[in-house]
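Tip: read the tokens left to right.
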């Protein structure tokens, strides 16, 4: 099948979520996120900024995805045209992944390795979500963070993802707060 035929077959299966990525200094990361996002059949992938990325890191999946270049933050806000933006950023988090709601048509926004999500986009976000971490490191690798959040989004919609959990609350060591589990 041609790439166009594959895209046409996948179109009705697309999820009601999109992702946005503030382009990273590491050109591998954006390609890796495109590969992850394809696995969850996101609707669109918005790339904010102009830094080059390594297409081959997407393992060819960029051919089947709608990738929307956004030269800057304002271009992203215009491109998502009112859809709810939810930043995924541990710093400045207002909720955790375990507690967050995912509105219909959500655009999940991931930051760059150096600076995270820029302040203007944090301010424009309906939610800022921390992925709980249990070790002493501060953040996950970017593509890992995207995979965790998209997996949680999918789990809540997949009948196989419901009704499973520990029989007793899990005790988490360390201080509480949005950044910890
Ligand atoms: C590698 S992080 C680095 C960003 C930030 N300057 C830092 O040091 O935490 C890059 C991006 O991954 C995502 N990320 C990584 N770990 C995360 C976590 N625990 N919670 C929420 N987002 C996370 C965020 O989108 C973040 O902007």
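Filled-in amino acids:
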């Amino acid at each position: 099948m041609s790439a166009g035929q594959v895209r046409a077959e996948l179109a009705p299966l697309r999820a009601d979520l999109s992702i946005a990525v503030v382009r990273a200094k590491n050109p591998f990361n954006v390609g890796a996120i495109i590969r992850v996002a394809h696995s969850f059949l996101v609707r669109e992938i918005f790339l904010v900024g102009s830094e080059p990325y390594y297409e081959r890191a997407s393992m060819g999946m960029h051919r089947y995805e709608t990738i929307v270049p956004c030269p800057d933050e304002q271009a992203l806000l215009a491109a998502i045209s009112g859809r709810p933006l939810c930043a995924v950023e541990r710093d400045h988090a207002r909720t955790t992944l375990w507690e967050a709601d995912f509105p219909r048509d959500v655009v999940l926004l991931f930051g760059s390795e150096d600076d995270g999500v820029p302040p203007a986009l944090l301010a424009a976000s309906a939610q800022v979500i921390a992925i709980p971490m249990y070790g002493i490191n501060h953040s996950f690798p970017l593509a890992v963070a995207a995979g965790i959040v998209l997996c949680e989004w999918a789990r809540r919609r997949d009948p196989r993802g419901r009704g499973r959990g520990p029989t007793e609350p899990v005790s988490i060591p360390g201080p509480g707060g949005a950044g910890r589990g």
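The radius of gyration is 16 Å. Residues 88-91, 110-111, 113, 115-117, 130-131, 133, 138-142, 145 surround S-adenosylmethionine (CB under 6 Å).
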